Amino acid sequence: MLDTTSTEKDENTLKNVEIRSKDWLENSPVCTKVVDPNFNLQYMSRAGIEALNIKDVNLFYGKSFPLDFYPEEFRKTMFEKLQDSKDTGEVRVHEGMIKTDDDKELWFESTISPIYDKQGKLDYFMVVSMEISERIKANAKDLLLKEIHHRIKNNLQIVSSLLSLQVTEIDNPEFKRIIENSKQRISAISLVHEKMYDSDVSGEIFVKPYIEDLVSNISSTYIDENNTFDQDIKIDNFKLDMDVLVPCSLILNEILTNIFKYGFKSNPNPSLRIHVNKKGNEISMIIADNGAGIIKKEDNKKRLSLGMKLIKALAIQINANIHIDSSVNKGVCYTIKFNA
Q1: Which of 5, 293, 317, 329 gets the most CB atoms within 10 Å of its CB?
Q2: In contact, 270 and 264? CB cutoff 8 Å
Q3: Is the pLDDT of residue 151 over 80?
Q4: Does residue 184 have a pLDDT over 60?
């Protein structure tokens, strides 16, 4: 007598696997579709039916895929991906937008996988689609923010150019100095927006390359290319939020401008030291030169006090403590500490 127990057991196991597989497909958050080799829809899981607000999916079974109500561009590019997968036997990825009955735009990323039978013949395509609408919106927002930073940078450069034109018409040395200082401050802010445009638009910028570029920009304004100065620059590689970096950059701009204009003046061996480090939430910045120090002449006191007013006002914005150590012919050392 033929023992059919083993065969019946295998068949029951297979049925259980099929039932579980279908349950998994129906309850999965991703939309799974089965498309035959002639590109006709044979199956769509519940996630897709609900996302597309399809009342009766049976009406679409056996119909050409992509379905007729899909946007023309979506149908065109999806068909090209299906055909390419059929021709090459390789997995392809498609990205496109579909409008629902209530005119809602949904973006999907679909992975198209050709499935072959035991004889190596193409049996069907499994098209697994995941909605990526939020990701698309986030990418669009990032692009918009980048464009905003780019335009702000360009507008600031225009303002700087206008100031450059204006300064040529001014004879008063004091007014010229004020405009040149304003240009330098605008440049420092413009550099922040330039770095934001080049960043990942997370709202944060790496401090090290920013300060290095700021030093380069200011030095090129005040130092002849034939002259050099010693640099001791050590900066930890960390990021700062734009709201912190803008006032911080203006503080650095004021300090560095004073160093290049006064600390290096009549200095045969000028030297600049910048040490920036972060420990936990505390950030420490040390900027020093080896110049003449803070001279007590009234004119220089007035100039420094104007710069210090701006530095102190900006320091309040980031809750920074600033200490200045200076003595004649031993330079000036600025120590700035704040949390971020």
Answers
A1: 293
A2: yes
A3: no
A4: yes
Indicate the DSSP class of residue 223: S
pLDDT confidence of residue 237:
87
Q: Structural domain of residue 194, as residue ranges?
A: 133-201
Q: Closest by alpha carbon to 219, among 171, 149, 271?
A: 271
Q: What is the identity of the amino acid at 58?
A: N
Which two three-digit tokens encode residue 27? 């309850």
Strand partners, 109: 95, 130
Does residue 334 sit in the same domain as residue 319? yes
Q: What is the largest CA-CA distance in the chain?
A: 119
Q: What is the mean pLDDT of the chain?
A: 81
pTM: 0.56
Q: Are residues 221 and 340 in the same domain?
A: yes
Q: Of the ranges 194-203, 225-234, 243-252, 263-272, which is most confident?
A: 243-252
Last residue of some domain: 173, 201, 229? 201
Residue 2: what pLDDT?
Answer: 44
For the sheet with 122-131, list strands across it. 41-44, 31-35, 122-131, 105-116, 92-99
53 confidence band (pLDDT: 50, 70, 90): confident
Helix (H, G, I), strand (E, B) or coil at 129: strand
Residues 224 and 326 in one domain: yes
Give the DSSP H/E element, type plus range, for residue 115.
Answer: strand 105-116
Confirm if 108 and 96 have CB atoms less than 8 A apart: yes
Query: Which pLDDT does position 225 carry in this prediction?
Result: 65
Three-state secondary structure call for residue 27: helix
Contacts of 30 by beta carbon, 8 Å cutoff, 6+ apart? 45, 47, 128, 129, 130
CA-CA-CA-CA torsion sign (8, 13, 19, 21): negative
C-beta atoms surrounding 184 within 10 Å:
21
One domain, residues 248 and 309:
yes
Amino acid at 27: N
Instruction: Name residue 235's beta-bridge partners.
Output: 276
**At which of 201, 219, 235 does a domain end?**
201
